Amino acid sequence: MMTFGKMLRGTAFGLAAGMMFATAAQAQETIKVGILHSLSGTMAISETTLKDAMLMLIEQQNAKGGLLGKKLEPVVVDPASDWPLFAEKARELISGSGAAAVFGCWTSVSRKSVLPVFEELNNILFYPVQYEGEESQRNVFYTGAAPNQQAIPAVDYLAATEGVERWVLAGTDYVYPRTTNKILETYLLDKGVAPEDIMINYTPFGHSDWQTIVAEIKAFGSAGKKTAVVSTINGDANVPFYKELANQGIKAEDIPVVAFSVGEEELAGIDTGPLVGHLAAWNYFMSAPTPENDAFIADWHKFTGSETRVTNDPMEAHYIGFNMWVKAVEAAGTTDPDAVIDAIIGVSVPNLTGGYSAMMPNHHITKPVLIGEIQADGQFETVFETPGLVVGDAWSDYLPDSKDLISDWRKPMSCGNFNVATGKCGGKGT
Amino acid sequence: MAFGIGDLPRMISGPVGLASRLRSVTLALTFTVLLVMQAGSVQAQSNSIQELAAGLAGADFNETSRIVDQIAATGDSGAVPLLEALVAGDLYYRKSDNAIFIAERGGAGYLLTDPFSGAAAGEAGRRDVTKVRVNNSLRRDIRSALGGLTLMSTDADVRLDAASAILKSRDPEAIEALDQAIAAESDDGVKLVMERARAAAILNSDSDESTKIVAVETIAQKADQEARSILLAVAEEADGALRAAIDKAVASVEASLALWSTAQNIWYGLSLGSVLLLAAIGLAITFGVMGVINMAHGEMVMIGAYVTFLVQEVIRTQAPYLFDASLLIALPLAFVTAGLVGIAIEQGVIRFLYGRPLETLLATWGLSLILQQTVRTIFGPTNQEVGAPSWMSGAFELGGLTLTYGRVWIIVFALVTFACLVVVLRRTSLGLQMRAVTQNRRMAGSMGIRTTWTDALTFGLGSGIAGIAGVALSQIDNVSPNLGQSYIIDSFMVVVFGGVGNLWGTLVGALSLGVLNKFLEPYAGAVLGKILVLVFIILFIQKRPRGLFALKGRAVDQ
Questions:
Q1: pLDDT score at B506
Q2: Which residue of A has its CA nearest to B236?
Q3: C-alpha–C-alpha distance, residues A174 and B375, integer Å
Q4: Is the link from the previous residue into A153 a cis peptide, with omega within 30 of 0?
Q5: What gap in Å lies between CA A247 and CA A225, rounded to an integer?
């Protein structure tokens, strides 16, 4: 829970930002870092934590002496879970406050909404959440997982270790689940799964009555083949979904559910006793047994003043993204976006799971993929980890429109959607 | 152009992948050799359970699985508690000497217990011990092994669990143990499950055809999804008479399932309807009776849910033994809290806006945002955990229906709330005054009723009921600042559909919308189902603008 003091501080930052804008003379002495996360509205549940994580990272960097001899100054704005407002606030951060880089967005639609702004004003956005891929933009760095860094390894794991032959792809009805499920469906069909062994189900945002769907899953799972659910159910709808699973007695040992949007934060609202063994695929778990992670958690508890606050995957993505940006700015010797965009490719920083993550030319990063089982204490226990790092693939190989596309922002190519079939930059594939 | 520069990432990952694959192949080979050697040596010296357990320290999943089988095979009385601790994730090993302990949180990190003697074995720091890891397939194996060990237990529930575990695992090796257990079993219910478990195990074994056909018939009597699953799993490899018997059994099981699925849909519909009723019933007072378009109604529900959370927090820290009563304690508190907030809203804002619906709508919408943000500031934006008391957890079978206790109680609760409200409105003087004021404000005033007070109390009553709805909804939904938002549209929908100003309309409206929704959902999907329900309501309102049960009389014309 956020303490009142933190809240005040957040407000104070906001106020300070306003005053800074008024007195331009002071603006020379600090480097502004924009934080574009919803602090009110439906997405506040997930995004507020990321704002706090960014404040902590900036505070730590300042304690280390800042950047290029200047202090970093966070500028917090609240886009209030309102997608058009994201674009407006992004513009305010860049042209108004003069942010050198912006860390923010959660939903894909909010990212799509700010893309033209970052392109037009030529600034940098670090996007920390797993997403559906099919995008690579010069001004955006994707530090969350692409589908090949989360969904595909998870399906492989279930098929290999649990012998799953029947698949339920359940998701909330919007772009991320629909694209991910399209990729997974093609992938499974390619692997020889029969079409009648795949069930796809979509539900509205915030769906709370899961009785029928859980019963359908149960019925689908009673065909004599091992069945698993791949869940791209988003945010708030997860709690009633898991409660219904528990109530109808579907145990992970019978029909395991692997989720891509359920982390430590989401589990905080549920009694996880009946859910032990259900899975999630991420690139980071709070339970990762590394010294870096222990230090990060200790700092986080100290910063928030609460021993019970959890850490999660998007926080790690910000940790990686922020450190990459700091390194790139140091290498470039300036915060000028063009210089930083060129300098950041190839930059490699420690992640929290004991390895290094590097920024690739397609503006995605390398990450390990972890599969964890939910434990009774609300944490995940890693049951599988990819042996090496997986490179984020901007354009999925399993969609007909994108399988010929690659992205490389290094000169001379400098193209986010290069078609290897036609040899031209731009447009969709065949 | 076959290789772009962009292919570089894929190439980079290539060698790593290959090297690791090679490594894992080597590992697997070494492991297989070790396995063979180990298996040989085990038979030679037959390790004691303590020695076997020691091998769990640092074992990977395959190794653990093998050790579990060996532990079960010893038949040692210490095997059951050891395996139970393992499956619950309570088994740890000390890093310094690889000794195995049952550990629970406490002291400096963990309190240790010796798994064989049950004696306390001191404490260990958080990083000094490591859990013996289990995954889903291991849990299945362990439960199956435990099933074999506990079939002869003196406790009928334990025997039932054991039989159910074997029914799930269909382990042919358990047939012998089951035969013995069935012969000794005195409880008919347990015996039935044991016989079915035996049948399932036989189908999974290499018994002859006639034995298997008998087993198919035993399973077919079960007539549920599990039976279908067991039968379909063996259908593909079967042929001849066995295949025919399986096909016939599956057809009969499916026919019975189809019949029950209609009943199941009605049940789900009633259950959804009861949730809609709970959410809408308070609004039926503030909007239906008073005519106030109260957009902050959902936030009253949210306040009720947060009161439940606070009550549980206090109980958890102060009086854990009261946990099962936490919802009952929360009910009056939620009613009073939400009611007082309601009265404050009425006195502070709404009473200046009577007769101006547009302004009321905007003002209450603003209030709802203020209330949400207030709760977010105080409690944080994340979900709060509200636990289910034991009498609301789990499910029971009624024929082919699976009814969850939580849903049953919510239906009961919704109906009781509704009945109480009807009594208050029909049988008390407050109810009489309320009806008088809403039907003819001036006349009621002339008769000596303090109309402003009645307004405040009516609004308070509606809000209070929304508050107790929040107590119930905390059991099935997120307790977060957004809780109310998801119910406000549905609530208005129910009240308008049922007929503004009529409580019975709200009841019938809620239940019929719930059932309609649940019958559409399997065919149209959740998204389209919801759209179809909205289209239906729009058409219905075109035909009957005053809803299902239109209020007649002079009040309507005001």
A1: 92
A2: A224
A3: 28
A4: no
A5: 23
